[in-house]
Amino acid sequence: xxxxxxxxxxxxxxxxxxxxxxxxxxxxxxxxxxxxxxxxxxxxxxxxxxxxxxxxxxxxxxxxxxxxxxxxxxxxxxxxxxxxxxxxxxxxxxxxxxxxxxxxxxxxxxxxxxxxxxxxxxxxxxxxxxxxxxxxxxxxxxxxxxxxxxxxxxxxxxxxxxxxxxxxxxxxxxxxxxxxxxxxxxxxxxxxxxxxxxxxxxxxxxxxxxxxxxxxxxxxxxxxxxxxxxxxxxxxxxxxxxxxxxxxxxxxxxxxxxxxxxxxxxxxxxxxxxxxxxxxxxxxxxxxxxxxxxxxxxxxxxxxxxxxxxxxxxxxxxxxxxxxxxxxxxxxxxxxxxxxxxxxxxxxxxxxxxxxxxxxxxxxxxxxxxxxxxxxxxxxxxxxxxxxxxxxxxxxxxxxxxxxxxxxxxxxxxxxxxxxxxxxxxxxxxxxxxxxxxxxxxxxxxxxxxxxxxxxxxxxxxxxxxxxxxxxxxxxxxxxxxxxxxxxxxxxxxxxxxxxxxxxxxxxxxxxxxxxxxxxxxxxxxxxxxxxxxxxxxxxxxxxxxxxxxxxxxxxxxxxxxxxxxxxxxxxxxxxxxxxxxxxxxxxxxxxxxxxxxxxxxxxxxxxxxxxxxxxxxxxxxxxxxxxxxxxxxxxxxxxx
Amino acid sequence: xxxxxxxxxxxxxxxxxxxxxxxxxxxxxxxxxxxxxxxxxxxxxxxxxxxxxxxxxxxxxxxxxxxxxxxxxxxxxxxxxxxxxxxxxxxxxxxxxxxxxxxxxxxxxxxxxxxxxxxxxxxxxxxxxxxxxxxxxxxxxxxxxxxxxxxxxxxxxxxxxxxxxxxxxxxxxxxxxxxxxxxxxxxxxxxxxxxxxxxxxxxxxxxxxxxxxxxxxxxxxxx
Lengths: 641, 223
Ligand SMILES: [Zn+2]
Known about the structure:
The complex is a heterodimer.
Chain A: E1 21-27, E2 31-38, E3 41-44, E4 54-55, E5 58-59, E6 68-69, H1 71-79, E7 84-85, H2 96-102, E8 121-123, E9 126-128, H3 130-149, E10 153-160, H4 166-178, E11 182-188, H5 189-201, E12 205-212, E13 217-225, E14 228-237, H6 242-253, H7 262-278, E15 284-291, E16 294-301, H8 302-326, E17 336-340, H9 347-357, H10 370-383, E18 389-391, E19 398-401, E20 407-411, E21 419-425, E22 435-441, E23 451-459, E24 471-477, E25 483-489, E26 495-502, H11 508-517, H12 519-552, H13 558-576, H14 580-593, H15 595-610, H16 615-622
Parallel strand pairs in A: 1-10, 10-11, 12-17, 14-18
Antiparallel strand pairs in A: 1-2, 2-3, 2-4, 5-6, 5-7, 8-9, 12-13, 13-14, 15-16, 19-20, 19-22, 21-24, 22-23, 23-26, 24-25, 25-26
Helix pairs in contact in A: 3-4, 5-10, 6-7, 6-8, 8-9, 12-13, 12-14, 13-14
Chain B: H1 57-61, H2 71-85, H3 95-116, H4 118-128, H5 133-136, H6 143-158, H7 162-189, H8 192-222
Bound molecules: zinc ion.
Residues 28, 30-31, 33, 43, 45-46, 48 of chain B line the site of zinc ion.
């Protein structure tokens, strides 16, 4: 047998075995977790001691090449707190001004040289971006998964707070690329949690997910129906989380003291976290903090703790209410509330959520692990296939700066993604050939209140009188929630060029340089990826030809068919090996060999249409009549298995 | 003057033909043969996902054209199509397939969002019927409607407690429901002049509804 004939659309890949596996990673502010799903069953991957949680800490010791990540970094922290970076997620896609706005004694030392854009940290004698620190944490997650499974891990679904803006999402994706992971999808944390819950319990109806992590708060309203997870509205605060509880407690411990250095501030925060965790089960406790040679005694009871954090909890409830209003729903329509994130262990949080929704929240799945489990399920769905479908929304409106610092919204928040919207602009000077566009994200009416995402310069606009040019700027948001902008002059069809300057991201050159620097895997990874891509493309060409032959073989003589089949066989043979050039050449030969066949198929269809067999179909398409018989989705040949 | 509809437009490719629906016009990008007309999104021979065709939102969802399609029917059609076209279904496919599936999903979401909202659906039906001017209308010219709008705005400004705002909201809902009912009849009867007038009123009522919602939220926050 020369050829193996597959159903069109199915691509059984004989090399699936040497493809790495795809995992789900919850890259959290305080903790990170990696999980793997097999046949719809997610499993958290643990270390040799059975520990599932990796503290999101990276220690950079002077003179040491490799960073120390996780529990070991916590030990380094006891002796050399200034060598450890914590809560780096809060800095993703952020600038120096944002950092100042976070307030309090910062547990970071900023690099002296801040050339604008993304924050740079001085740690252990080096200067690092948050993207690089996150990449180090992701490398540790990847390594853990490879040890736990004994397989190579090269693809991942990574979760992000639903309320993450475009800059923070892009930074997360860049970090994964630096760590040698192909990002299959960025999935919103509450959506991932809902996926884990919904599949576990077969839930249907309207659900709220209340996700209070270390540094971020999200709330999403979802409709679960026959395997579809449809997000109706989402909201949150990307700078509100359990860390803020710790800050409030630490401030209380250090009240009135102005002599606090960064090391003591770090210690106070660690003590505050300990106190918070103790008070989930105890009513009171006491601890101490060293400030220089002095030892400060700290005592805290639960009523005082709750008084300290109540304003923060209250803020989460207000956000939850406004998200429900955004979904055009009333509180009593919500059938269940899912708690996600370690900070939902705080008794005041649980009581408050229960009081708001009037029902006890669901928390049977460990709130620290549920997001990674959902991400693992989605990783399996994307690579192996699944009946479930996640339909998510844009969390924050996208707009453009207009006259006087005002914002014109182009895509409203809670619009289902992917989405594309065009906005038309014109020139205001005769002969104007370039135009600056400032893209912002957020809900405020003025530019100052929103996040600056990027500045674009459109150039190459054909010179015309003022107001005559019609430049359509299209905002396209993909299923990851990532934005791309393109522009075209409508009267001439000239595509304006966009020069992107991300406000708080790495520009493509910086990213390329970083990828080059991480030599360990870059070259090998790139080769492997290119080989996989050429295989996928070859398989597609082969399937298309097989389908065409099955339909229209009659248009070929036996000799012509034999030539085509021989060329196809060459592709199949090449696919058996690992030589990318050979695969590409065989595909090119096959495409050339089948050109005449393709032409005959088009001619035959054209003649058939002329001879009247298809006149009805033509008439129907030209009119506005509804189509008859959209194919059953289950029977669709293009739905991957 | 009351500000009315916004001027956002659908994506550029919505209006651009990529081959039309006729069997013989444009070959499938993958198998290079006729796409066939059995399906709007996939090649009937090789099954490859195609770039979206410039078909109507109703055709895209496989629904008969009409005003106010029942929500469960619309959702079912949308979910069916999303299951086939969402980029998640193409995560391991070739870059072109991923690109086309994203374009298809964008068009599908646009169709769903348009038909889901009665006002957007009414404006869309009028546009399909060649009456696109109303969508660009940014001010109210009809004196009766203008008077109604000004009175409502005054009443909203004077409403200082939740109960008063609630009463205005109830009236807005009632007015809106009667608009929807008469639009249904007008579209069914093919009375486009009538439908245009009522749609204009519905546009104003939608904006009023939004103002009431904001006002109610502000009052609730300060309470
Ligand atoms: Zn085809």
